[in-house]
């Protein structure tokens, strides 16, 4: 049985998606390896977990994802450039393991594959195509871990408030009374219409699970050929398990699921670059003045 104060030291990062909404760009490289400023998306995700002292990480990859493993490996030809320009898993302070998802059967299926890695321990899930941009880095994950240690729930989801017109793009939660940034989840709905959404709190691509999630995944049926994590979370709620949510707060979610969001995410990262951010802002202002 999971102990109340068991340390959360493991994370699973699903990164096996095809990236069909970003074709033909993702034919050249995985969406998780697209640049956000000076670093690939996945590099930012790994830094976030490391900043929260979560350092044993399983990457779930798939076909056409070889560049993921290559990126975090030691490269003798680049070693003299230093850790900032030639990062490796060791230099980022993490231990990476890899597992392949043979077919794109959804995020729930990817998590089921991780059972041998997580064993009987609680673990985080961080989607590899979504960056939480916040100061200090890793703050949201730390809040989730603190909530787990305090309340010992079966699952925790990170949430952000979105416009009601956007809820159909997310899994959305119904919540009870907030205690600071933590509330109990009473229902989860996958991509509801604006009229049917139980709230405007959308799941923000970060989760914390106990092994009970594997029982829930075994108990749900795939929807349109894919196992959805939201279905498993809803099953936990139906079983009477405690599911909590933690608000993102002042941080920003950078999602690269489609081309518009990717462009906006890249601009955000580039504009906050300590070396070129200010100059880029000036150049963009010039460009905007020239648009008629």
Task: Walk me through what this model shows.
- The protein is α/β, with parallel strands linked by helices.
- Helix content is 31%, strand content 23%.
- It has 10 helices and 13 strands.
- It has a 5-stranded mixed beta barrel. A two-stranded antiparallel sheet has the order 2-3.
- Helix 7 (212-219) packs across helix 8 (229-238).
- It is globular.
- The termini are far apart.
- The model has no long low-confidence stretch (mean pLDDT 90).
Helix content: 25-40%
pLDDT < 50 stretches: none
The counted number of beta strands is: 13
**Strand content of the residues, in percent?**
15-25%
Total helical elements: 10
Keywords:
single chain; 292 residues; alpha/beta; Spore Coat Polysaccharide Biosynthesis Protein SpsA, Chain A; two-stranded antiparallel sheet; 10 helices; 31% helix
In short:
The protein has 292 residues and is α/β, with parallel strands linked by helices. It has a single domain, classed as Spore Coat Polysaccharide Biosynthesis Protein SpsA, Chain A. It has helices at residues 25-28, 41-51, 66-72, 107-113, 115-118, 139-151, 212-219, 229-238, 259-271, 277-290; strands at residues 10-14, 35-36, 39-40, 56-61, 95-100, 123-126, 130-133, 155-161, 171-175, 182-190, 201-209, 243-247, 252-255.
């Amino acid at each position: 049985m999971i102990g109340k104060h068991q340390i959360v030291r493991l994370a699973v990062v699903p990164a096996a998606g095809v990236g069909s909404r970003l074709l033909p760009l993702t034919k050249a490289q995985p969406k998780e390896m697209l640049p956000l400023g000076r670093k690939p998306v996945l590099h930012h995700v790994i830094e976030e977990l490391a900043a929260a002292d979560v350092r044993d990480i399983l990457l779930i990859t798939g076909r056409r994802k070889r560049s993921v493993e290559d990126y975090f490996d030691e490269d003798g030809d680049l070693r003299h450039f230093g850790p900032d320009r030639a990062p490796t898993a060791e230099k980022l302070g993490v231990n990476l393991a890899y597992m392949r998802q043979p077919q794109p059967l959804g995020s729930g299926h990817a998590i089921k594959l991780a059972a041998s890695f997580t064993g009987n321990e609680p673990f985080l899930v961080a989607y590899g195509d979504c960056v939480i941009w916040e100061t200090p880095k890793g703050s949201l994950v730390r809040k989730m871990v603190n909530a787990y240690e305090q309340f010992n729930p079966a699952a925790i989801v990170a949430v952000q408030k979105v416009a009601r017109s956007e809820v159909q793009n997310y899994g959305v939660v119904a919540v009870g009374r907030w205690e600071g940034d933590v509330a109990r989840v009473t229902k989860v709905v996958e991509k509801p219409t604006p009229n049917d959404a139980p709230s405007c709190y959308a799941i923000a691509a970060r989760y914390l699970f106990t092994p009970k999630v594997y029982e829930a995944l075994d108990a749900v049926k795939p929807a349109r050929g894919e196992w959805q994590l939201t279905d498993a979370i809803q099953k936990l709620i139906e079983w009477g398990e405690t599911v909590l949510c933690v608000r993102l707060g002042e941080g920003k979610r950078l999602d690269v699921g489609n081309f518009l969001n990717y462009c906006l995410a890249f601009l955000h990262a580039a504009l906050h670059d300590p070396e070129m951010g200010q100059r880029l802002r000036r150049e963009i202002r010039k460009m905007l003045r020239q648009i008629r």
